[in-house]
Structures are given as structure tokens and as C-alpha cells.
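Can anyone check this?
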Amino acid sequence: MKQLLTMIAAALLFCPGLTAQPQKGVKAMDKAIGAFLRSKEVLTKSVRWSHSMEDYHFKYTVADNGEPVRQTDVQRLVDAFTKNVEYASAVYFHDHTDNVQPFGSVSFERSDNFFSGITGTYRLGDDNNLRIINFPVDKNPTSYGMLWYERTFTDRYGMPFRTVEGEIFKFYDGIWKMNAFHPVYEKGHGGTISVSKDDYVISETLLEQVRYLANMYAESLIMSDEQACDAVAYSLQSLCNLFEGHLSSQQFQNLSEVMKPFDAPCNNPERVSIIKKSVGKLRSRTEHPLRGVVMSQTTGSGHFISPDMERSLRTRYDMGLDDRPQVHVALTGCGSATSRVVTIARKFPHQKPYSVGMDNGRFACSSLFDKDQLLTVSDDAGHEMVIIADSVPMEIDLLSGTLTGSHQNERFAECQRRLKALELEIRKYAIVDNGISVMDEQGYNRLAAEAHDLQLQFVRENQDCPIAAWYLANNYYAMTFDELLPLMKRENAFADHVAMQPVWQFYEGLQKRQTGRSFTDASATDTAGVSRQLSEFVGHGDYMLLCYWNRDSREIMRTLKDLRKTCEGKNLNIVCVTLDHNLDEWKKYVRKRDLRFMHLMASPGRPDHPDSIWHSAIVKAYGVAVALPETILFDPDGRIVASGIFGDALKRQIERLGLQERKN
């Protein structure tokens, strides 16, 4: 268990005379960080964008010859924290070589927050080093921090490398406050249902035990033996409380049929309560299969997806109303020897995961799942495999990524191993802890392109099974229409897999955003409440960049602000359509962030139903149904030039247009 550690509390240790000149400390730290960022030794890139906050990732990688990495610029910056303690109001230092475990995380929170969730959070691993120093400027804190660590890794060819990487951050202007340090940060398995080693057998045993008690209860009722009825009710409660497995919906239905004698009228309120609690206990251990329409809000990102391409995904799954065929999945295998549990999570759509206890690195479970359900199996140490639910028993080695038993899953495991071989090289080009920050864009983009092509190959080679559905469901929002066109065939064996439903929605939307298609007019409301037509901003000699966004995809605003500055006075109109439904928050955000381009809000079809905004005419006109942000670029004749491009790629596309000065 990690424990809170305050290495130095300068507010208590230093006298007021030493904190009289905090501005000196601020200037000294700014100078030291500036020198660090200009260093040729390290690769740096700003990865966060928010008012009065600066955050940089840094990285330094060398071939591993067994010696520690000696990096003078990192040490100079570390020394700057120590040197400027005399001007600080509070200082928190930790080195991984100390004989104490660090606290789990520290976070900074915005005080003028329009959209919820704006925080800066820094998590500490056991091998991390930390410096935080606060200066009281005009009674408001200016905080600097540095979190760094040393790691080793190998590339796909087995070549060893060593790296020093981390973050530098600054919070200022008095709108950020540092929260208390959090004592513990662990990868948890909250919300999981424990699965016994063989739930199927235990469930059958439970059914026989409940049937025995139900028969006893029925006989006691016939004999009007109230004392015996009470005893049976208490036995039922004890049996249900002891049950540690989980039940399928069919198994719970079978138990309900057996328990019908307990539904007989009873004048004893305490006994009625005991029976209801017993049934409730079994219901809480029962899987509730998803049926009907299921909505899911997720973030589309991955190791090989550029940060510019991360999308907020609003996915819709129609699970139908009939019971889906189920299969008995039997898994055995091994993972990390230090892991406590293996977690099994159902994907597309995500459902409540299950955890299986491990014994000396081994695990075993047996459970019912929907046939062809995609499942991730992972241990505490981060080893993970994906499998397809079928009835063939499987032996899994999470450490090596190998699997035996099921033919289609053996093929699937081979695909995953080939892709993970590329993942080994990511640390050459990016920091991958707590998200991904690209340091070397050229190297990362080469690797990402190779991984992208490999996954397309997996789809082409596995048209007969759900392997193709997995790779499409994870990557469709980063694929072009031309890439998807040959893969989206209704006759494919995997075409009707539930994981493919958002893919089809996205693909059908892409057809409305294809290059060369003519402009479709639609109306929306501006920040003044006036109805506007899109046709006001396209044609007339002007290009138009149309951007759909919401609070979860607001990072696109950084790119649009840059474009406004570089294209000011030229024949480009930027029009943003928000799919948020909180009018006041939207208008405040636009004003406070100085987003000086046209802003429109799509009109909800039903004001009492916020989700109906996705069905408004301006959204449906261009098939925006799954991923945000979405961009569409129109030429002066109202034809689509490009769509689905973001970040630097969008800036380069605009540069190629050869914009002209707008005539007065």
C-alpha cells in the first residue's frame, strides 16, 4: 500500500524572510525550463493546452550498454528546483531511491471551469522522481513540477534501449489550485464480478441445493409447520450468501422456476424479507445480457493512432430483443506470477467485466458468453490478449501471447503477436505512460503507417471470422473511404457482428462526405439565437471549413485558433457546429476562450431529449453520427475538398489551397 509522503513542506520549514522574493524564483525557473526546452539532448513537445497551464513531455533515448543514462540538461533542471527553494512557499521532493514509497498521484484543478473535468493529474510509479515547487505571486500560487523516470525496452529486433523521460508542468495566474496528494493510485478492478474456477458446475450444484430447499419449504407449508418454514428460509439465505460465482440469465431463470414454492402467501414479514433478500443476492450475481438499443460514449485512441486523430466516439448498438446463442467458454492459462487476478472484459459494446483469481500465476474459469463475443483477458501486470468466444477449450499464455485450442483464436493470437512486435518500438518515438505523447513525429508516423497497413491486412486475410470485426471496430474512425470500401461487404461472414454496427454507421456517413460531393444547405442557431444557413459561409469566392464538435472533442479548437490567425483576412470561413446541448456553457466557453469564428448550435428535434440533437438536419446532412470532431472542407463552388483531417494535417491542407486576400 502506497502512503502519502511530503518530503519537504517549505511553508513550515522556511521563515517569512526567505519567501519575500517569490518573483525571483519564478524568473529563475522560467529561465531554467526555457534552457531545457532549447536543449539538443532532449526531444520535447507541449502536450496539454489550457489557459494558464504549460505542460511538456521530454524524452532522451540511447542504445543500452548497461550504463545509466547521463543527461546533463535533465540534471541542470533538477538542480534549479533545489536552488530556488529559498523563494518558495512549499516544496515537495521525492526520489525513487528513497526508502519510502511515494504517494499515488497529485492533481491541479481549474477554478473557472466551464466544461467539467479540466484537471492536470500526475501519477507516480515506484520508479518515479518528483519535484514540485510553489511560489506565492500576488497571493496566488505559481506551481512548477517535474516528474521523470528511467526505463529500458527492446525493439522488434531485440535491440536494447534505455530512456529518460517525463513531464515538466507549470500552473499560474491563480486559477489553478493544487489538490491534496492522493495516498494511493493503483490499477483497480472496481466494478468486476468475481468468477469461480468453474461457475458452470457450481451453478448446477446451486440449482440442486435450491430445489432441495424449495421442496422442503413446500412440504412444511402443507404441514403448516411455521418453525420449519423459518428454518428453510434461513438456510436459503445462508446458501445464497455463500454463492461466489456468477449466473447467466438462463441459469437465474432456471433457479426462479425452482424457487416458486417460496412465492406462496406468507403472514410473516421477517420471513418474506429473508426470501426477497436471498433472491436479490442471486440476482446481483446474474449477468444481465444487453438487449435492445445500447448507447456508449468512449474515446477512440490507441498506440498507433496519432494524438491529432483521437476522437470522441458515440456508438449505438442494437442488440435485438431475442436471446442470442451462447457458448460455454473454458479458459485456462498463465500470466504474471505477481498478479492477483485476471480480468475478462466483453467489448463492443463494453459490459461489466469479470475477475478471476490467480494462483502462482495460473488461472482457470468457465463461463457462458454470447457466441463470437470479443473478450479481452488481462492480468494486473498489463499483459493482455483478445479472444473470440467459442466452445473450444483454450489454454492462454499472457506472457508470450500464445494460445492453443481454438483454431480461429490461434490465428487471432498470431495477429496480435505481429502487431505487438511493432508496439515494442513505440518507446523510440513516444512516451506511452498515462496516454501517448509523440516525441519524434517522423519516426512515429512511419511506425503508425506500418501498423495501419498490417491491420488492414489482418482484415483482408480473415474475412471468414470476427478477427476482421475486431480490427475494423478499433480503427474505422482513422480509415479513409477508399480503405473501407473493399472491406465493407454485406456478404462477409463478420458483416453482421455486433462490433460492426458503429463501423457501418461511420461508413455510411463517409459516403455523404466524399470528395467532390456537392454542398448541402442546412440551418442552425448562432450564439445570439439567430437562425443561420450554411450557405451564407460557402461560395461567394470563399472556402469553408465546417467543424462538428462537443465538449469531449474541444481540443480541435486549438488548431482552429491557429488557422484563424494564419488565415485572417483571407477567403476562408470557419464554421463550428456544436452538438452540446447546454446553451449557457457553450456561449461562455466560446467567449472566454476567444474563439473568434462562426459558432452554431444544432437544433434538437426534441428539446426535452438532448440526444435528439444528433438527429438534427445539419448533422444528418453530412452523416455525422459516430465520431467527433469531424471536419469538412468546401471549395468556393460548394464542393467537398477533404474531410476527416485534423491537427497539422489540416493546417497543411489549408496551406495547399492557395488562399487569396478577401476583397472588401
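Reply from J.R.: I decoded it. The domain at 514-655 is CATH 3.40.30.10 (Glutaredoxin).
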